[in-house]
Amino acid sequence: MNQPPPGAASDLARSRIKDLLGGKQAPSGQVIVKGWVRTRRDAKGVSFLEVNDGSSLANLQAVIYESDPAYSIIKELSTGASVSLTGLLVPSQGQGQKWELLVHKIQIVGPSGPDYPLQKKRHSDEYLREIAHLRPRTNKYGAIMRLRSQCAWAIHDFFRAKGFFYVHTPIITGSDAEGAGEMFRVTTLPPGDNKPEEDFFGKVASLTVSGQLEAELLAMALDRVYTFGPTFRAENSNTSRHAAEFWMIEPEAAFFDLNDDMDLAESMIKYLVSQALEHSRDDLALFDRFVENGLLDRLENLVAAPYVRISYEDAIEILVKSGADFEFEPFFGADLATSHERYLCDHFGGPVIVHDYPSSIKPFYMRLSDDERTVAAMDILVPKAGELIGGSQREERLDVLMDRMIKLGMDPKAYQWYLDTRRWGGTPHAGFGLGFERFLMMLTGVTNIRDVLPFPRTPRNLEF
Q: Is the terminal CB of the chain with fewer CB neighbours within 10 Å at N or C?
């Protein structure tokens, strides 16, 4: 019979700081805590350690008296060191937390030193991006990573409760998904060899920019599906809102129309935000204090407020009549700029869903209206962030879809697999896309996408 490796069983017995600090009474007997030293403060006859294990924003204060044998190695501990502490959880003698750890045994798991890059002071985001492999140890970036985890779980919970199946769409693709952006090429050919027919797939292959088209195929068999995975854009854009690799949530549902799509998207945002407020409020409070004053109130309003729904045409009329000095002039047929989106949210005092966009500015797969002037598309705009979700009812009529593809210069033969879903048992269906990082920026008030990604991929940046 195989035996567990030494120490495996004992490590399961250690306590997480989040659980200890949240407990109504101290555990009986000794506890084991493992984590990283944030600070060490020495006083006469006693030392205080602030230790964090990543389970929460809060640190646990550990107290070591000079009379205890464990005190002998206290001078070897510095910020950044990883430690294992054994002791008793007792009521705290100081302000700020209910419990503290009275330490009887210290083990240095991994030493640190005076050159540790994260000393006890505020560091700029620019500096922390240079050491992205260490920044999750800071309060801000640890909170962001916990929020990513919480929101990812909430996404799965939301769709499962509504009968959606989680599906996996290809990362390597031969489709450009309606020209959603510049694509990274995947090749086994040596540099300079441009003969796709000799490549691994016998044709040009790329990293996906969207799983939507494949999700549509699966919805025609499973009724309701969603994808949640990485997507890639090769746009050489060094802005605060663009990254080469990011995550997308893309649901697709058979027998849905545009109204169903708007209902689903609004309820999803409200659910995700409410779950973050319920389960990660301490982490969100950090951003309310240091990033965006009033963040928690804004998030509460996102959950409570009804989302105003207006047509694109009415939105343009509001913008034109506003008299505001926009950088980009609003007119029918122009895409909404960020300044337009923010104005509309301010005008209505909350989130806005704009629907029925001009067909001239939308992709081939969106359902064409009878007058062919607009398509059944929608965007959800939220205060501060602007556009958060984009979606549409898909064009289910084979003849209309093929005609639109031809008018846009597309070759229907290259999309026979897609057209088959309209040819045999097609149904009205709809879906949308939500950029996960865009949502996290909205949730935290963080204004640079690089700061909500664990390891951002941007032009000239492929570290870690």
A: N
Asked whether residue 115 is assigned to any structural domain, the reply reads no
pLDDT at 73 over 90: yes
Give the range of the structural domain holding residue 56, as residue numbers without chain letter: 8-110
What is the CATH classification number for the domain harbouring 91? 2.40.50.140
Indicate whether 190 belongs to any domain: no
Point out the domain boundary residue: 77, 93, 110: 110
Global pTM value? 0.92
**Cα dist. 126→119, 130, 446 in Å?**
16, 7, 13
Q: Confidence class of residue 1 from pLDDT cuts 50, 70 and 90?
A: very low
Are 151 and 283 in contact by the 8 Å Cβ rule? The answer is: no
Residue 124 located in a structural domain: no
Q: Output 129 or 377, whichever has higher pLDDT.
A: 377
CA distances to 183, 216, 253, 432 from 232, in Å:
7, 19, 24, 17
Contact 437, 247 (CB under 8 A): yes
Asked if 249 contacts 434 with a C-beta cutoff of 8 angstroms, the reply is yes
Q: Is 233 helix (H, G, I), strand (E, B) or coil?
A: coil
pLDDT at position 141 is 96
Number of domains in the chain: 2
